[in-house]
Amino acid sequence: MSENPKPSVPFVCVHNAGRSQTAAAFLTHLAQLRGEGRSAGSAPVNAVNPAAVRDAGGRHRHARRDTSKGLTSEVVRASDVVITMPTRPNPSCASGVML
Fold it and tell me: Is residue 1 in some structural domain?
């Protein structure tokens, strides 16, 4: 659980190249200064999908320089909630919300 007064919510998908990046951008945009969306992947790839940057509509300021990031125990410990987003049943990224 985060000790930070601003809640941190990572979205996790397999590659951390599209869905989780976009979801984190939208949460950060909607929460403004009250919370932070983050993203990670269970099997990250080298770069963020350019379509994810476009789909975020400029809300993800850092997407152009972000690379996909792996899910670590530190990310989980520093988070208030972890939301997983698999495309299909996948043992490397279980579906659901971890509290």
Answer: no
